[in-house]
Amino acid sequence: MASPFKKVGEFLKSPQGRRITEQAKTYARDPRNRAKAQQMIDKLRGKGGGSGRH
Hints:
By secondary structure, the protein is mostly helical. The protein is built from 3 helices and no strands.
């Protein structure tokens, strides 16, 4: 049985995997999307998000 990492690697080498990788790169290049991602990371880390905690 192949390990999960090997399966992921095989998928990323497939045509569908390469297409999805390119879409992710394009999405990541957009400054608005980068800001959204950073806000989500900050929220998950507890660095803001208006939860009212100190």
